[in-house]
C-alpha cells in the first residue's frame, strides 16, 4: 500500500494540507502605525488585538477534509477506479481551500486601508503543492489501471 508511489504522494498531500492549519496564510503590515493583520486557517486578526477578529474556520475545515480524504484514498488501493474518483473529489476540496484563502485575504486587504499589498505566506502555497501531488497521484493511479487492463487482455 505505501510502497506504491501514488500512496507516497497522497501521504505528502495529507501532511501538506494539515500543515495549512498551523501555518500563517497571509499577512499585511502598515509601515506607519505598525499594525499587522495575519490570516491563519482559523482566524483573521490584528496581531496586537487592535481591531475586529474574523473567524476563518472554512479554510481549516476544507484543509482537514482534504487531508482526511487523501488518507482514505490511500486505503482504497484495491479499487483503483474508486481511488481515482476520490482523487477528483479531493481536487475540488483543495481548490476550495485555495479559493477560501483568496477570499479571506481580500477581506484582510480591506481591514488596513493602505496602498502596501499583503504577502502570501507558506500556508498559502502548501495547497498548491497538494494540488500538484494530487494530480501526480491520479496520474499514477490511471497508469496502474491501464497496466492491469492490459494484463487482463493478454490472458
From TrEMBL:
**Which domain of life does this protein belong to?**
Bacteria
Q: Which UniProt keywords apply?
A: Membrane, Transmembrane, Transmembrane helix
InterPro entries, alphabetized: DUF4293 (IPR025635)
Q: Specify whether Ribonucleoprotein is a keyword of the entry.
A: no
Residues that span the membrane, as ranges: 7-26, 56-75, 87-104, 124-141
What Pfam families does the annotation carry? DUF4293
Q: Does the keyword Transmembrane helix apply?
A: yes
Q: Which protein are we looking at?
A: DUF4293 family protein
Q: Which species does this protein come from?
A: Hymenobacter lutimineralis
Amino acid at each position: 500500500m505505501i510502497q506504491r508511489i501514488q500512496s507516497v504522494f497522497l501521504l505528502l498531500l495529507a501532511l501538506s494540507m494539515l500543515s495549512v492549519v498551523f501555518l500563517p496564510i497571509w499577512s499585511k503590515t502598515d509601515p506607519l502605525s505598525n499594525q499587522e493583520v495575519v490570516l491563519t486557517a482559523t482566524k483573521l486578526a490584528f496581531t496586537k488585538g487592535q481591531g475586529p477578529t474574523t473567524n476563518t474556520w472554512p479554510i481549516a475545515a476544507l484543509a482537514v477534509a482534504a487531508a482526511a480524504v487523501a488518507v482514505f484514498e490511500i486505503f482504497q488501493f484495491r479499487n483503483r477506479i474508486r481511488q481515482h474518483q476520490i482523487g477528483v473529489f479531493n481536487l475540488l476540496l483543495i481548490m476550495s481551500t485555495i479559493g477560501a484563502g483568496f477570499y479571506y485575504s481580500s477581506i484582510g486587504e480591506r481591514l488596513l486601508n493602505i496602498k502596501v499589498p499583503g504577502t502570501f505566506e507558506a500556508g498559502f502555497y502548501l495547497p498548491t503543492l497538494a494540488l500538484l501531488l494530487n494530480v501526480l497521484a491520479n496520474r499514477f493511479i490511471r497508469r496502474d489501471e491501464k497496466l492491469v487492463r492490459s494484463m487482463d487482455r493478454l490472458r
